[in-house]
Amino acid sequence: MKDITPVADGWELRVPDHGSVPAQVPGCVHTDLLAAGLIPDPYLDLNEAEVAWVGRADWTYRTVLGPLDGPGEAGHERADLVFDGLDTVAEIRLGDRVLGATRNMHRGYRFDVTGLLDGAGGTPLTVAFTSAYTEAERVRALLGDRPNAYPEPFPYLRKMACSFGWDWGPTLVTAGIWKPVRIERWSTARLAGVAPLVTVDGATGRVEARIDLERTPSGAARPLTVRLRVGGSVAEATAAPGTDHLTVSCEVPDARLWWPRGYGEQPLYACEVSLLDGDEQLDGWERRIGFRSVELDTSPDEGGSGFTLVVNGVRIFARGVNWIPEDVFPSRIGADTYRLRLEQAADAGVDLVRVWGGGIYESEHFYDACDELGLLVWQDFLFACAAYPEEKPLRGEVEAEARENVARLMPHASLVVWNGNNENLWGFRDWEWEEQLAGESWGEGYYLGLLPRVVAEVDPTRPYWAGSPWSGSWDHHPNDPEHGTAHSWEVWNREDYAAYQDSVPRFVAEFGWQAPAAYATMRRALSDDPLAPDSPGMLHHQKAGDGNGKLARGLAPHFPVPADFDGWHYLTQVNQARAVAAGVEHWRSHWPRCAGTVVWQLNDCWPVTSWSAIDGDGRFKPLYHELKRLYADRLLTVQERDGALALAVVNQSGQEWAGTAWLRRVDVDGAVLAEARVPFTAAA
Amino acid sequence: MKDITPVADGWELRVPDHGSVPAQVPGCVHTDLLAAGLIPDPYLDLNEAEVAWVGRADWTYRTVLGPLDGPGEAGHERADLVFDGLDTVAEIRLGDRVLGATRNMHRGYRFDVTGLLDGAGGTPLTVAFTSAYTEAERVRALLGDRPNAYPEPFPYLRKMACSFGWDWGPTLVTAGIWKPVRIERWSTARLAGVAPLVTVDGATGRVEARIDLERTPSGAARPLTVRLRVGGSVAEATAAPGTDHLTVSCEVPDARLWWPRGYGEQPLYACEVSLLDGDEQLDGWERRIGFRSVELDTSPDEGGSGFTLVVNGVRIFARGVNWIPEDVFPSRIGADTYRLRLEQAADAGVDLVRVWGGGIYESEHFYDACDELGLLVWQDFLFACAAYPEEKPLRGEVEAEARENVARLMPHASLVVWNGNNENLWGFRDWEWEEQLAGESWGEGYYLGLLPRVVAEVDPTRPYWAGSPWSGSWDHHPNDPEHGTAHSWEVWNREDYAAYQDSVPRFVAEFGWQAPAAYATMRRALSDDPLAPDSPGMLHHQKAGDGNGKLARGLAPHFPVPADFDGWHYLTQVNQARAVAAGVEHWRSHWPRCAGTVVWQLNDCWPVTSWSAIDGDGRFKPLYHELKRLYADRLLTVQERDGALALAVVNQSGQEWAGTAWLRRVDVDGAVLAEARVPFTAAA
Q: Which residues on chain B are in Cβ contact (under 8 Å) with A449?
């Protein structure tokens, strides 16, 4: 059996003029420097600016490996040094040998280190990071600058885009070994890839596992067995000598269906793959899977062409939220944080979480929690708000990253749609990119060619959509409300939230309204005295262009000008909840024409004024509580229809809802001008 | 009014060691050298090899312009030197000034030469061509070699691919000024672009003309009028000072519909655009248009997803042929040749002509003839059988060429579909390109992104399909018979033509069978004595890999081995007709599941053994005559259905076909074993 030795201990980070400090792996330079007391907490006050130098510096991590037990790496033929993630531009050295260089945060790397770990005193391992700025700016100079919503070089390097700052996040460009490292020692063969295609036909679940093997020279000539076990079912296939790719399929009779929350249970099945040499197990792989079908119905209809998720044959209005990285230093996000935040989403009635393309492919903990909670996941590929070059060296990285992450995430029942990018097709058409680009590549080939091809190849069980917003083809404007997904940002940017009423997009993948973080959060993070909308810390923790102006203009039609900070804080938070309510109630009442609302945004990555429902310290804004009403299975809302007011009865409970509505028209003093009791029945 | 002076006379071509020879413009070096007696006819015997040096050489054309009448270019503010087409890598000099450099055969070029034409003795104009090989090989070295069905560098330069040879054509890489040249003198403003969107709604035709203007400095501040006249209708729009883009729309009541041949008439309307400065006409543009709607129905159905042309609401089984350049030297193809060849197609019952992507965007004469004859045109973008880099310098050329040609061809009623490429999506998936490419670009971004975007922008009235074959998305194999278009080549390459029966693709965009050219054609072109299938000239004029082997193996199941050349020539020609008949009768009987057959190929570009119905000298092969039967409006054919023989009645006549079929089963001696008279009615 394969031996796995974590490489988590003894790491040091070299700090100029300070020798070395202890380093956490997984971790990053900012958190190591913070732990060593060498930088202030960048989330507090104006400290972000003070630590900007960290992102421009190069950093080296070092530890010593082994010596491992016994000669020849404990009797194994092969030893691999495996990094699940390196952020980002790294050169890896073992002893005096360069193992390789990396330039993609979103990939894992494996190096054959057989025979290199026998040094009696151990073997030094160093991972030297070049500043992401240095490399991204080099590539930008090589390929030419291209349009970008932000003046930062993130499109030129495969690193979390919002590391470089966003309109809700700080610019904290870190580096580090952000995922686990380990030594894997093995003989004969190992499981190099396991890609399970999970489908269900009637009551029969089916897993078709595509297996890739890697063999040692001595293992090349051996017949090996791959065993797949799902629930109580077992299937085996033989990998003949020289065969490194095979498929093994297994059926599960009477499979229990996995449902999104509110529609049924979330039964998960253990799916185990074993690689056997005779009776000896060489390697194993285990994930949890769920049986459910998913389709994306985008077929033409009288209203254009929609965007409706169909799970197990049931058409679903998606009660969604957008998810951004929960921390600008994602190595710091633990399983408990993921679980807590996603439980909070579920508690608010959410049934779909969109992982936004300026962040990361999240860790297993995220998708595990979604599997368990019945949260549908919409996963963006990691492109946001900029023109991305299609030339080398980016092109090959994009394909490798896509293949790796599609295969990694495909076991998860919760994952229901891949999306090509965030706002780039829109940007090309509407944000004057086309003129500036003058024919240069900008990512179109990724979104319309390479990525759908990779998804169709690696995981044909899931739908792909080229972008958000996107109308399905260039025949319509990318943000056409009659086709596909739409982002509704004019309302926040330039209009009153009553204007949500003016349009019924087929699926609202982004819309939202800002509010400050909870009072306690701002008080913890800022030493401003007094706190004011325009006190230095508040202004620094408001990253949106003219954000405070928009807050004020958004308040004006609805409330008097606040007298003081407390009033401003309270009313802007209330106004956020009212704005989002205006959108959700209107759009949800137009089901099935509108098939989803995805509120921008569930969470924050630091203490900031933003569109979030839960702030950077994990505290709820009033919007969070309002979401519980808006996203409840049953919603009554008064909406305009044909120039009159109408009661819309929204029922996603799965059961018929019959009742009597008591309608009253009252004057501003509360006197009843008219009333009626209207019986209603809403089908299941 | 704009003055136009053709630059057609006085051209010379410099020939190493021979001084200069007279040059034709439009023309090319091969035809000039041929006219001067300096090279033998490359279409005869083995001469192709003898003139190969021409394609590797550089060539310079020269003439003298003017002096033009009067000072200041005859009183006009501006003089432009306009080239409709330069083949391909050229530097243009006027006097001692370099006007520019070109690298795309498929574009036109315009140079401002104001003030440069006043020399008393005239001004020398030279166009110096670098060998297309030199440039294509330079770009290949720069970007890296990529997979290609042929060992020639055509994907690295925007020049007719089959210049470099094909499996039916010689390698004759020419250069030259292949389209007209002229001087345009104008003042105030000119029509820089006219793009008419022609649609029809009920009986009302509509033309929305998108106009681009170019103005002189003195014209910048003038309000101008654009007048659009279609049939008896006139509309005007004003271009305010500073406005260079405007739209003028015109409706034609009681518009007569343009129909494909066999479905109705082909009424064409003059569409005239005038640019006026007060009463003075500055510039004019005129084309013929036709009113018809076209859709491509590719919606999912019980059989997969089809590919059915719908013209004026009528679903059409396309009786098609593939078109290749009628001459390897396309400057030599005149209006009469186009008209004759397309009339021959129409006479054979053809109603759709596919312009194949290894050739050219054809001249106006081609599309004019199709407009008049009611031949539907499927136009490929010019990519065939190879991986095409998406990097500079190709990327910008592809977009410019697409925009120019979509706008140029959009007035033509006959043009009904744009297609992204020939066989490249298939090649990527099936021909081991993916492995060889190792992540390099190969054109996918053109076919799935850039080209559909350009078509949607420039001409939203026409459908686009990403390639042939193509199944509509990466969810299915590109050549999946159940989805979209398919190419059926296994039958010719490796099977007997009875195997056409094994599959019913939704649309067969290529299939065919070889035969030698007419006897008289081979006799004219070859001095082989005796002629034999393997005599030197016959072998040289057979470009397909193992072509003669496939001819022999295709004959074997049907005829005895021919005793001599005459027998071989006759039987291989007959066999070609029988093979194509086997395909067409089978597929046509499966309408509406199968919505078209496009025979490879109508024509030839030189005397050669090929899949053509009409040979390189314009002579008919037996296949041509058989096409008349296969593509007749009414066809009776005996086909297998559910294990028994059935009579299929195919009726595309537009009128009900009622009759009685007299069916007889006879033994090999002609004795009647059984007979029946079966009345049938086939709806209109």
A: 444-445, 447-449
